[in-house]
Structures are given as C-alpha cells and as structure tokens.
Amino acid sequence: MSDVKKAVILLSGGLDSATVLAIARDLGYACYCLSFVYGQRHDGEVGYAKNIAAQLGASEHRIATIDLATFGGSALTDRDIAVPAYGGSEIDIPITYVPARNTIFLSYALAWAEVLGALDVFIGVNAVDYSGYPDCRPEFVTAFESMANLATRRGVEGERLTIHTPLIHHSKAEIIRLGLDKGLDYAETVSCYQLSADGLACGMCDSCGLRRAGFLEAGVDDPTQYVQGGF
Amino acid sequence: MSDVKKAVILLSGGLDSATVLAIARDLGYACYCLSFVYGQRHDGEVGYAKNIAAQLGASEHRIATIDLATFGGSALTDRDIAVPAYGGSEIDIPITYVPARNTIFLSYALAWAEVLGALDVFIGVNAVDYSGYPDCRPEFVTAFESMANLATRRGVEGERLTIHTPLIHHSKAEIIRLGLDKGLDYAETVSCYQLSADGLACGMCDSCGLRRAGFLEAGVDDPTQYVQGGF
C-alpha cells in the first residue's frame, strides 16, 4: 500500500473546479482529474482543464466523451435554446440546467474511484453564488454519497467513500481569495457557457456574471479575457 | 397533458429487462427504452434489445454510446480479464461486476426521464438469482431513488420519481413464467457475457448458467441458441 491517498477530482476547466484541485493537492492527495466532453456548447473548457491539470501536477487526467446532448433539455447542450443573459439572482432553475448532469458526472467519478482504489471524490459545487441547479445543493451531495456507499464493491466491504465539496458554503469572492492564496492563476480558467471559438468568455451569461461579480467583490483584478463588448 | 404515462425502461436485450418491458407495457406505460454500448464484450446484446423494443411496441428506443471500458476493472469491459465459468452460488462479488454500472445507467435514465417528463423508471435488477453485484440490491435502488428526487428539477418542484424493480424478489424461474404469461419469446433475448460473433450464447458463464437453471426450474424448454459444446 502506498502512503499517498488517491482522489478523483471533477475538473471542468472553470474557476471553482480549479480551486478544488488546488485544495485537494494541498491536502496531499494524488489527484486523478476527470473531465467530460458531453455535447456542451462550451467544450473549449476542456482545453483549459488540460492545462490546469498539468500545471497543478495531477497524477492523471482523463477526458470521457459522453453523450448528454442526445437527451437535450438544456441551453448548454441544445443549440436551439439560447443561453440567457446574467440576471443577478434567479429563483427558478434556469434553462442552462443540464438534467442529471452532476449525477452522471459523479457516477463516472465513482466508477473510476472504485477501479483506482480511491475513497475520495472532489466536486466544486457551490450553493451560495450559483445558478440554482438542484444538483449543486448539499442535500443532493449527501444523498449521492449514501447511494454511492451502497453501489460499489468497496461499500459492501465496509470502506466509506466521501464526496468532498470544499466550496459548497463559500461565496464566489471567498473561493477566488482561497485560490489566489494557493497560487492559482485564474487566467488559466474559464467559466463561460458560450465560449467563443478562440476561447474568449462572452461576458454576458449567468456564469460569466457570477464570476465577474466574484472578482469585483474580492477586490482583485479579473484576469478573464472577454470578447469585445463583454463587460 | 396526455393521459398515457411515460416510463423509461433500461433494456439490455437480456431475459430480465425484456420481461420488465413487457410488465411496464402491460401496466399501460408508453415505454421509452434505453440501451448502452459501454465497451462490453457482449455488445451484440444491443441488437437483441432493438428487436425486443420493436416487437413490444416501445414508443422510442435510444442507444447511448458511453465509455466504461476506459476505467476497466471488470471482465465484461477488459479483454485481458477472462470471464469465469458459472460457479453456482458465489458469495464474493465476481470479476464480471462493472464498477458503478447501474448507477451510471440509472443516472442516464434519470436525465432522459426529466427531459421526457416521465416520473417512472424501470430496471430489471434481481436480488435472488443474480451474480452478487452490489448495485442489484434493494437498498441500493432505494438510495438511488432518494438521491434522484433531490437531483432534478422535478424533484425540487415536488414531483416524485419512482424506480420500479418489478423482478427484484423473483427467482429466475418465476421471471420466466411471468414473461411467458405475457407472451414473451425468450429466443429473442440473450443473457450471455461473451456472445459469439454470430450472437450465440457461450453456455458457460455465470449469466448463461443462471438463465439455464431458470428454464430448468420453470420446467419449460430453453429456447436459447448456444455455441456447440455449451450445455
């Protein structure tokens, strides 16, 4: 048995998941990063994920190609549904919600964790400055963890898998300060739902809006490169 | 609103899931069948699933291509691990267990159900004559259902999704009798872990063994076509 504990880190290429990777690394985990090409219109984020994983010394980075666009139902995977502009605080679940996305991502993480012998999975969900997605809430993560421990060989054998959500109660500004303290360069991350072909953020969608507001509140420069006219 | 309720049916092409489809159809559901090409060595089963879905009048049949072989760890997805012979009753979880497979399959079913507006998902898991997989147990399914109702828009809005497991407490012989009563032709199904290129069952693996024993116990002819030397 190696002394280094392995963890699976869900890494999108965005601000939150990059911060989570830095946190897991600083906790001493060997980090196995997992990204998805799932039919998202902003699949350019995966290129950012690749760079971040390399820069932060991930033990491995896998990119799984899975088809969520087949099912549609979201502005992020259906080109016929427009990405709405940033609206500040929405109460309803917005059209950018991808049905069961985090459930599917965590299920793949669970599969890989079991094969790796990892008992720790990290995900950058956040229930403060977030888009109101049901699968970002603490009660969802707790329920997933309970299910996961009944789903797998290791669970049956009495080992417990933990789903870590180190950002769940942080504001976006707090997350940014945390990452900067760990030496993260947020210019290497991207949070836009409709990245331009050359990897620039739109500066208009909900995700850009939340990110932008976070930098403003943290009182640090926003290093994001926006398309002309974005912010 | 249509009066016909929609259900998502996980359909492998095997004996159990075909029986589940017949049950859901007879309950009056419009059946949306979902199959997976996931890197399984017996992906010929998907052709059987196609025929069954058509014969039983499914409203739609989708085949999602997803990559579970990437993670390995199972004789069903890793060609370097041999499929073991039927051993009667194993206590340990066998090497044919695919890490988190049912979790992943149910997560996709959840995504599709949400887009369809379906509140019912059917899966043919069985905890009697089964291979000892952790994700076939009632406690796993119950935990998945709880999680699913926290994961989705419909759950947040107060609608409850149900995961139906009509076979979970039936013996293989009971399942076969149930399907025959519903007019199922089991020659159109296949349960083998290592189907031959021309779609014949090996007659040696755990899944063939359980199926064979079921027909014997039910006292009906086994219509399965085996390779020469199998049974």
Describe it.
The structure is a homodimer of 231-residue chains. Helix content of chain A is 35%, strand content 11%. By secondary structure, chain A is an alpha/beta fold. The first copy, chain A, has one domain: 3-Layer(aba) Sandwich (Rossmann fold), CATH 3.40.50.620. In chain A, strand 2, helix 2 and strand 3 form a beta-alpha-beta unit. Chain A starts with 5 loop residues before the first strand and ends in a 13-residue tail after the last helix. Chains A and B meet through strand 3, helix 3, helix 4 and helix 5 of A and strand 3, helix 3, helix 4 and helix 5 of B.
Mean of all residue-level pLDDT scores of chain A: 88
Largest sheet of chain A: 5 strands, parallel
Order of helices and strands of chain A: EHEHEHEHHEHH
The chain pair forming the largest interface, with residue counts per chain, is: A-B, 42 and 42 residues
Low-confidence stretches of chain A: none
The CATH architecture category of chain A equals: 3-Layer(aba) Sandwich
Assign an overall shape of chain A: globular
Structural class of chain A: alpha/beta
Looking at how many chains there are and whether they match, the oligomeric state comes to: homodimer
**Number of individual domains of chain A:** 1
- In CATH, the topology of chain A is named Rossmann fold
- Give the CA-CA distance, first to last residue of chain A: 51 Å
- For CATH, the homologous superfamily of chain A is named as HUPs
The tally of beta strands of chain A, per DSSP, is 5
CATH class of chain A: Alpha Beta
Query: How much helix, percentage-wise, in residues of chain A?
Result: 25-40%
Widest sheet: strand ordering of chain A: 3-2-1-4-5
What is the count of helical runs of chain A?
A: 7
Strand content of chain A: 5-15%
Rg of chain A, Cα atoms, Å: 17 Å
